[in-house]
Amino acid sequence: MKKKFLALGLGILTFCIGSIQAKGVNKVEQVKKDLVKEGVIVIQHEKVFKKFEYPPVVFNHQKHVKAVKEDCKECHLVDKEKKLIFDFLSREVFEDPEKAKVKYHEKCVECHKKFAKKNQKTGPTGLVCGDCHIRKAPIVKYPVMDFDFYLHDKHEKKLEKLVKGKIKGRCDLCHHTYDLKKKKEEALKYEKGKEESCYYCHDFTKERKNPDLVKIINIAKEDRWCLKRASHYRCLNCHLE
Question: Do the domain assignments include residue 207?
Answer without folding.
Answer: yes
